[in-house]
């Protein structure tokens, strides 16, 4: 502090992003666009604000650990990005506070709220209070390889209406010699990817909600159905590659294999489209992505049997941008956070890498060029579901992953479900909080 | 005679197998950085230097190596210095319970290198205002390595004859002179070995630097290495392999230097 | 003058360098101070944390409760803990006690009276595996053991063999053997230098085979070294976290050794109190192992 | 240069071993004094206690006219050569020799000059740049001596300095060392377990056993008249004959032979008393013809001593040894007689000379 | 029991050191043969090559009538005692002695019985349960001997087995060992660097230098007539006087003194020739009165040899040593004369005896 003038306001902002590494584009956007623009805008208002970006580039668990340690010691950046599902546990621990408490009532009157769909706002809410601004959202679909489909005699505009149709397609692919017809994430090695791109969408498709009306879903029929599908795919039918589920780097591998034309159907989020098979800068580039990669909504087990009686389901998540309760300049910090979510900022940010922003006004403009994102925002988001922002969720999720792992390695779905329920009761404080 | 020949053939076969065992895993590191689009497969590289160029342009890569060097050398110097003094005193002066103390510390040091210690260490650093300070990190790392270093060095010192010191002593040398003129030169290979051991230990440490340093400009190579993954957690193989190579070279050079200059070996075991 | 006059106690000390207890204490003090602050204090703190329900986040982070031995009870009644404990035993026995010791000794023995480039190259390679950073080395092994493009499968002509999945423990045991052999090799190299050649030769003259020479001459001689070595590498292997980088404890916890278990519990699961309790249990196991080794060492004489 | 005086010096090691048992000893200024004794008798301990490397448990050490009992080793003004020489392996010969001067803060140039000078004197001039590892045993020994000489100490303490040398070199080093000491005139305490060395070199010597001094005297005194059977059996390059006997009237019956009572003890023995009869092989003459008052037996072993032979006679199952000069060696198995020279046979009662 | 024959035996170490240089040697069955030489001359190498612990670079080794050059050490039927005895510290005496039998798969009871028997013979009966660390040096040496005896080998190889003993014990062990060998009658090769030991014990001996044998003969032959100056300077418990001289007519001028030409070389020297005059101190007589044909000088050092003194005369700046019997020691600084005994002085030309 001594190095700067007394009235200079210093702000820091942190993300799990770093130039030259993980999420480099996001890091560059903050450092090269947001900060100078924001400082200029503040200067115009007569405020001398200096913003510093604190990069990071590690696993989410490690990032979370570091944030928790920082916040616990009343340290850390002023503006902090967190994953949506951490909101609950951070709030319970007192690491983050409702925005209005931290930065004043004007946070409720931020112009952006009006542009953000209700469901996405829900991500930021815990105990009916808004703890953060949403940064974006996403959705899950079934990707498929049109070339392989053609070989197997399947249509290029494939849209299965039930799980059975997916299995049927898989069988045809298998007959056509596709090494791995269907790949749905399972097992513990993939961590949260197993939940989001695997068991949770399936659970929803079978009509189950992981947390509903204050109770956690136990060894319910929907769960058994979901695990049953895993068994159908990985239990010796040859539809899926059970090994891939167990490898520490299995998800990378599944990406590479899909890009290589070895996987027929893959359940993934829009990140797969944007960041993996992206012909320009994906990690497993597919030059002919737009021609070869098809996508379809995830069907319910049977039409109308999904949650809320839907025919199709999906899961969404999203990151949040929150204000450190210990910030010396919470108001300016909020301004900075809000600035990053202004239409100009979002448009600038998505210029290179388009993604679904929280704002409908922006989405309308930027998504037009991208068929998948359009598809998601128009068809998927309206019927998607979110994970409960509760502190115990990560452990429940881990238990779910465990259950899928057991099925993949040969346990009966009913047994795995029962084991899961037993574990769940231990996690959420007794059988009273579990519905089966 | 034939038995002799069979023995020789056996010996060289065994040595060849051992060398293969220790070399094969390293091949990838030798090939991938020079390949334009490396995979997990070891293939003959096309000898491109674009990967190196990319690393050189990386905003943190080279700086992080410098930080690694700072942390590793700083810790090693501190470990060697403090451990040598302590091991020497423990080796030469009878102190009741010194062995029990050493074993206890050795055991405690194992808990401190575990994950569960991160909260106490973090909060300790906060309290002592050592957060985001490389010095603080050096002190913490030193604390973890000291017991084993003292343990190993004491073995080393125990096996060094005392007559050199006594001889210097009769000539009137003070204890500090004795340590400086006689003991340190005599145990130099041991000090060098412990130094390299400490460097290698610090060089690979990821979690502590990551948690205790917040300024990316201060982070060592281990942390930067982990940033070379994408949002979804995929390894950026060209960068990772190239950085891995650059990140390995300093330790290897350090080892070669030390082993050439001071010798690299262990002495002794527990004396009976 | 035959009567011995009584003298003031000697004003100097009797150790080789004339350090004396005060100066010796001064030599030890800096190390001990650092150890006290940065090792003993946090270690005791960890042990204390093990008695609470402390978590990284959530309500228990704000107000941790003292729960006594609940964590310990929970740990020992947890299947996962016993699974990890058993895997750790395999890991330590396999990679440290058998792998590193046997391989380290074998190399030291083969090279015992050789000089020149062969010795330097072999030793250099082994030491290289030891000093390379864990992050790099684990990556190399992932590449080596990769199912499809991995060098090992290519060499053995078994493409598609999933080492890390079908034999996760074997993989990390071999990996850790590869990584840690250098220490044992160096220690045994020094130890073998202390075995009097005449003892070996008198066994040879009696007609003893190679194995008989080892059994009757070498091992009895280097007992102390073997035990020091075992003690250190057992401790280190017990707490070794590197397998995580290779298998992340998977598949299906099949390679979740205790150090990885603690990582998963404390860092991924956020259950710090529980993790600390498991760490304390590891400490206790280490204590037992150390006492066992020391007993072995003391027995005799 | 100073006398050394030990008064009631006692050293008990922490384990409880009494290595020195209330020793009194005076070594005059300039004397070459040898300490002789079997392994473990406390020779090294005595030397180290004088040097100050061990603290005395009781008693006093006076060097010159200064009581140094409580003084730091470095301040006692003595210099010591260790059995393994303790040359610093990381320093070259010059630096090794100059080390004591470095401690005394002598300027670098002056040190080197002095080292050169001393080295030259000891014939090390061409070796000054080598490290100890590159020197032969004899050369190392001379470097150790040079280092001690460079100190200009009041007294030199040598702990078996010759025992690491070749037999041949050892003989030469004896003469060399003795000559050197004479020239320097520094009081020297020399520890050895080789009696020939002690005899050859010392002005006076002490024979120790179990922390006690069993005899002090000139080499000739100790050789000719060992004060007790311990010293008798310890001194001599051929083992002294020590034979059980009994007083029988005017004669002694030893190994079944009747021998005259040595004139020195005449009248001091009582009839029937058990004694030990001691006579050195060198102090007997051999005769192939029967002789009165001699040991008679069969020649069972013959050992070449160079210019003489050591003949072992089996006298009624007892072995008696006698030195036979060159040219008169009896054949093995022959009958022979060993006649004690007059005045050279000793009689021991309860282990002590009568 | 077997003879040992070495034919053109050569050993070159990997580093290029030629430790044995085409040696020929025959040791008859039952002989006690001593190998003597300075450090590094190849004694140990020779012994180890016979044992098979080093592979010969060239030549052949025949034991009995078997060529064992390429045979494993364990199959050569020889037994060896090492300088440090190489007793296994973790086995008790019985197990140590029985070890070779254990390797030969003799049953446990039979082994123990044999060990007891051999141990008893060597006076170890009461020590059979101790470990080597609990034994004195002499006891350890006997255990090592017992272990060798238990093998019933064809030949014994001893590498300086006495050099770790106290001087005193060494003397006793000599006699003991010699007696034992005579009784067992096993061909024995005994390495030592102590000439007195070799002289005293050997039936025949070889003196080595730099991998070559410089002289072979009985101890008396080697002592009295060293074949070259190397052997001359190496043998003898007092160093032989080897003095540069010149033939001057009927006389030799040595150290400025005129001496008669020894009768053995009469007529074989040419006028003005440079020679080395060799005479042992034992082979001169000392006289305080001037004598013709003797060394005359001043007494500068005197060393006690026990029953005699070694007097060093400074003869025109050359040191000449002479042994003086007890009782006739001259005072230091006195003028004295050393008269070579007839027939004992030798003349060396180009290092070899004339
Ligand atoms: N540091 C020590 N601690 C305990 N006892 C010791 C120590 N040093 C020597 N002793 C004991 O003191 C006694 C005298 O030992 P010292 O070394 O003085 O004998 P020495 O006459 O020099 O023998 P040597 O000829 O073998 O060198 C021995 O019994 C020895 O075991
Ligand atoms: N293993 C070896 N490698 C190379 N050179 C050796 C080896 N062993 C001995 N030498 C060399 O061979 C020569 C003869 O050595 P050897 O040990 O036979 O001598 P020695 O006569 O036994 O000497 P000492 O009396 O010192 O025991 C020496 O020059 C020695 O340096
Ligand atoms: Mg001693
Ligand atoms: Mg030798």
Element-level helix/strand string of chain C:
HHHHHHHHHHHHHH
Structural class of chain A: alpha/beta
Shape of chain A: globular
- What's the tally of helices of chain C? 14
- Return the CATH architecture of the largest domain in chain C: Orthogonal Bundle
What would the average pLDDT of chain A be, to the nearest integer? Answer: 89
CATH superfamily of the largest domain in chain C: MetI-like
Shape of chain C: globular
Largest interface: B-C, 101 and 104 residues
Overall pLDDT of chain C: 85
**Tally of DSSP β-strands of chain A:** 17
Strand order, sheet with most strands of chain A = 2-1-3-15-6
Bound molecules: adenosine-5'-triphosphate, magnesium ion
Helix content of chain A: 40-55%
Q: How does this model look, in words?
A:
The complex is a heteropentamer, with 1 copy of chain A (436 residues), 1 copy of chain B (272 residues), 1 copy of chain C (301 residues) and 2 copies of chain D (354 residues). The mean pLDDT of chain A is 89. In chain A, the strands form 5 sheets. A 5-stranded mixed sheet of chain A has the order 2-1-3-15-6. A 4-stranded mixed sheet of chain A has the order 8-11-7-12, sandwiched between helices. In chain A, 44% of the residues lie in helices and 15% in strands. In chain A, helix 8 packs across helix 9 (221-234), helix 8 (192-205) packs across helix 18 and helix 9 crosses helix 18 (393-408). Chain A is of the alpha/beta class. In chain B, helix 2 (50-57) packs across helix 12. Residues 268-272 of chain B have low confidence and may be disordered. In chain B, 71% of the residues lie in helices and 0% in strands. Chain B has 12 helices and no strands. Chain C is an all-alpha fold. Chain C contains 14 helices and no strands. The longest helix of chain C has 32 residues, at 79-110. Chain C has 2 domains: 2-49, no CATH class; 78-300, MetI-like (MetI-like fold, Orthogonal Bundle). Chain D has 354 residues and is α+β, with helices and mostly antiparallel strands. Chain D folds into 2 domains: 4-228, P-loop containing nucleotide triphosphate hydrolases (Rossmann fold); 241-353, OB fold (Dihydrolipoamide Acetyltransferase, E2P), CATH 2.40.50.140. Helices cover 24% and strands 35% of the residues of chain D. Chain D has helices spanning 43-51, 93-103, 108-121, 137-151, 167-184, 195-201, 219-224, 229-234, and strands at residues 4-12, 18-27, 32-36, 58-63, 66-67, 78-81, 155-159, 187-192, 204-209, 212-217, 241-248, 251-254, 257-260, 274-279, 284-287, 295-304, 308-315, 318-325, 335-340, 346-349, 352-353. In chain D, the strands form 4 sheets. Chain D has a 6-stranded mixed sheet, with helices on both faces. A 6-stranded antiparallel sheet of chain D has the order 13-12-11-14-20-21. Chain D has a 5-stranded antiparallel sheet with strand order 15-19-16-17-18, with no helix packed on it. In chain D, strand 4 and strand 5 (66-67) form a beta hairpin. Chain D is elongated and about 75 Å long. Chains B and C meet through helix 1, helix 3, helix 4, helix 5 and helix 6 of B and helix 1, helix 4, helix 5, helix 6 and helix 7 of C. Bound molecules: adenosine-5'-triphosphate (2 copies) and magnesium ion (MG) (2 copies). Residues 43-44 of chain D line the site of one magnesium ion (MG).
